[in-house]
Amino acid sequence: MPDRVTVLSPFDRLIHDRARAEALFGFHYRLEMYVPKAKREYGYYVLPILQGDRIVGRVEPRFDRKTGELQVLGAWGDTSRLDEALAGLATFLGADTIKR
């Protein structure tokens, strides 16, 4: 397995089945946009960070279309290669800058 790092969509087939993702990776994940703000553990729209064959953390990005800036509202877990993962997301979104 290549040691590539990327962020996953909440609808990616790897984590779509939440129970399977937890069994395989020990990673509990849910879309917290459906959770009242006061009860959220992480954030509104948090994405898993996949490094090689492991889910190592999570990040809450927000893209400001007006400024072209990809912002990081929060990050948890192993974020040592987060810049690399965000670079791919920024390219996909057409972001000009990344603000951590």
Task: Pick out its properties.
100 residues; 5-stranded mixed sheet; 3 helices; alpha+beta; 24% helix; globular
Describe it.
The mean pLDDT is 94. The relative contact order is 0.19. The protein contains 3 helices and 5 strands, in the order E-H-H-E-E-E-H-E. It has 100 residues and is of the alpha+beta class. Strands 1-2-3-4-5 form a 5-stranded mixed sheet.
- Strand arrangement within the widest β-sheet reads 1-2-3-4-5
> Average pLDDT value?
94
Order of helices and strands: EHHEEEHE
Relative helix content: 10-25%
Number of helices: 3
Distance separating the two termini = 28 Å
Roughly how many Å is the radius of gyration?
Answer: 13 Å
- How many β-strand stretches? 5
Molecular shape: globular
Class inferred from helices and paired strands: alpha+beta
Q: Which blocks of ≥5 consecutive residues have pLDDT under 50?
A: none
Largest sheet: 5 strands, mixed
As a percent range, the share of strand residues is 25-35%
